[in-house]
Amino acid sequence: LATAGAIYMQTNDVRSAEASYQKAIAQNPQFIAAYAELANLYWRQQRGLDYQNIMQSLAQVNTMAANQVQQ
Question: Distance between terminal CA atoms of the chain?
């Protein structure tokens, strides 16, 4: 799904790209690359609040992943 999002971005189909990234995150909440790509999409679209929210989610997932590695 993240790959589909990237393909949609290449064709400037932002809505489908966003939906693909969101679906990828819903299916695997620890899929860091999907968060990063969705953040990039929001940044390019100048959607500041959405960007901030997804970056906060990414930071939380990153922290959880780091804690799992340390255990």
Answer: 30
Residues 6+ apart with CB under 8 A from 27: 1
Closest CA to 50 of 41, 60, 59: 41
Segment 32-60, tens digit of pLDDT: 999 999 999 999 999 999 999 999 999 99
> pTM above the 0.70 mark?
yes
In which band, very low, low, confident or very high, does the pLDDT at 70 lie, cut at 50, 70 and 90? confident
Per the CB < 8 A criterion, the answer to whether 5 and 40 are in contact is: no
Q: Which residues, 6+ apart, have CB-to-CB distance to 9 below 8 Å?
A: 17, 37, 41
What gap in Å lies between CA 12 and CA 64, rounded to an integer? 33
- Separation CA 23–CA 4 (nearest Å): 11
